[in-house]
Fold these 2 entries.
Entry 1:
Amino acid sequence: MAEQKRSPTSSIGSLVLIAAIVAVLVLAFAYTAGWLTPNRLTPAKIVGSLAPPGGPALGFRRNHAKGICFTGTFDSNGSAAALSKAQLFAAGSYPVTGRFNLATPDPKANDAMARVRGLSLSVTTPDGSTWRSAMITAPFFPVATVDGFYDLQKALADKSNPDAMKNFAAAHPEIGAFGKWAGSAPWTPSYAEDRYNSLNSFVFTNTSGQDQVVRWSFVPAAAPENVTPDQLKARGENFLDADITKRVQSAPQQWTMLVTVANPGDPTADPSKAWPEDRRTVNAGTLVVKQIEAEPDGPCRDINFDPTVLPAGMHVSDDPFPAARSAAYSVSFNRRTAEDKDYPHTPEGAKQ
Ligand code: HEM
């Protein structure tokens, strides 16, 4: 067969095309890394801003570092199936792996000092879907925007400027409501007595294709026994893990999942704004915590409780937080898993 010769012009054209593709790829990488836009807020910058002055606790989650893992079930009563076609809301019992935690990057934090506690869930259903949610006890978020979250971390860390927090509050007045809540809301002595809120809004889609914007909360079956910060301090620095372990050993602990449906015009993109109390709620079922698991090498260790892991029938809304959280949690996950040698593993002999 005769060899086909390429003209010099077509070879040059191919080289120019290849060079152009390489240049676009390099630019795309440079943009993603933030080199072209040094002022842009990247997930790595946000995660870096969470670190305490001495640097992050290596091997640990970059926020909510102190916590305890559990397993149990989500027992759906079928009522929320009218809102979402996710299998999770069809009547049935689905396995859960979850984590009670404190909103602090310090794994050695004093339990009595952590104003905000968290509950993280990963629920799987027979159709192979997973739903993850990471909620907190505050009834609304301290800031309205993701940039505001970053500005808050910087203001809290800026010890050289005595006006840092004052300036922050002037630019982000929504922090005032959070400050009032933090200063006046009752404290409980147990993870089991707390209500945990999604704060972010999501969209539920039902089998007829109807969309509803919702938020959700997990409301405890245990009656809250209000205690003062001084009474909590008297319980030592690590009373929460011991308390929940003891309670779960004596009986499963339960929470009702309440789904709140937005009215038209409710602020869906701003987790610092609570919705009015009279919004329609649907009792979707019960979280049953059956067993406390080891935190260090237990089943939660390799779970990233990314709030955008959602089954069909649930998706993100116009709330920009879940996407930003997803990117930040992934940075945190990659860092902590790369630091495995720094993580305090359970000694072999002590494993059950
Ligand atoms: C832009 C805003 C936020 C940022 C940058 C952020 C950042 C983080 C990071 C880096 C982690 C550690 C993730 C890991 O290593 O697995 C984390 C964990 C957590 N966050 Fe956020 N967060 C944000 C907003 C929120 C909100 C709005 C909530 C609740 C409504 C929340 C609740 C939690 C909880 C409960 C955990 C613990 C998850 C676990 O058990 O692993 N966060 N957050």
Note: DSSP finds eight helices and ten strands in the chain.
Entry 2:
Amino acid sequence: MGFTAGIIGLPNVGKTTIFNALTAVGAEASSYPFCTIEPNTARVPFTEHRLQTLVSLVAPPKWAAATIQFMDVAGLVKGASKGEGLGNQFLGHIRTVDILIHVVRCFENSKVAHVEGVLTPVADMETVNTELLLADLETLHKRTIKIKKLIRGGDKKLIDTLKIIERIEMALDQGQPARSVPLLTGEEARILKELDLLTAKEVLYLANVDEGDLQGQSSLGQQIQQQALEEGAEFLTLCGDLEASISEMDPEEQDQFRQEYTLSASSLERLVATVVSKLKLIVFYTIVGQAVRSWIIPENTAARKAAGRIHTDMEKGFIKAEVLAYDTLISAGSWSDARQEGFIRQEGKHYLVQDGDIVLFRFNV
Ligand SMILES: Nc1nc2c(ncn2[C@@H]2O[C@H](COP(=O)(O)OP(=O)(O)O)[C@@H](O)[C@H]2O)c(=O)[nH]1
Ligand SMILES: [Mg+2]
């Protein structure tokens, strides 16, 4: 189980530049190698201050941050939903991801052609979103035909599914994504998930701005921000070219450079952190043997399931979890001090792991 963010957008908006910069960051964020899985997919570490503090406290020979997978999806063009260009391949790829990072070009560059000739970020967003909407309408159309047949054949359970499909179709017809449809029950949410729609996925708009406009204050950046706000979507700015150059520097040089540009933290780290929070994921830590590691799980994951994140044997043979909150470990100074003080809690398989927990799983092999 992993989580994947798909970088999407029109051609020449900076998707690959951003993907490569993200991949380069991985190289120095762990003592384990973070490899590119396939040419267009890479694991990117979620670097956050707690892991760094734990590593300096424990000084383990090995450590590794949990990762989010990023996929550089082929550029989308008008007509993709009808199979134009790499249409089908593109849509097939984004179907597999958990969240869409929709890159919108706001940088001028006379050497790099814009597919439509001029910079029109809001129209660009719409071009991409329309293709996703059309693809979903097509999916729903096919599903409706199938479901109606099954209902006629006596499968009355599917009547609810059909009702939800109709509600979603209505939204799509008005240009609204499936994620905007308010769902009343867990059952409705389950049906929506099963429909596997592209516009049901969370979206994060990423304005790829000029070097001189890192805060996205230009009118182009503002337009995207406004649009994202109206959709209730997340919005971030970065300069792909700049991040790509920074990612090639050594760490000290990077810090210096960021100070000059008054970039508080790496925009790429901010991007990964936003993906984590948007997907409602939390982090827990293990300090076992020679390694300190962080792990990412969805909120409200039970201890036994969380153990399975590390190894299926640990889930199967789960006995109990010994748990310590991050802050308590830091104030105690070490795991053994915390144990002496009686701070370590014994939790069963139903315990819901909390963000920042440090967990030692006990299991039968
Ligand atoms: N000026 C400028 N050029 C950029 C920026 N990001 C990407 N580019 C350039 O735009 C071109 C297309 O970028 P690429 O990442 O291949 O776009 P993709 O087709 O979306 O993957 C490359 O020549 C990049 O160097 C940026 O932030 N500023
Ligand atoms: Mg590309």
Note: The pocket of guanosine-5'-diphosphate (ligand 1) is lined by residues 9, 11-17, 75, 107, 109, 112, 208, 239-241 (CB under 6 Å).
